[in-house]
Amino acid sequence: MSQEYYSQQDTFSVVHPQQDVRHWPVFGADGLPIGKVRDMLFNTETERVEVIELTDGNRIPVEEIEILEDRVRLAPKLYPL
Question: What is the predicted pLDDT for the residue at 14?
Answer without folding.
Answer: 84
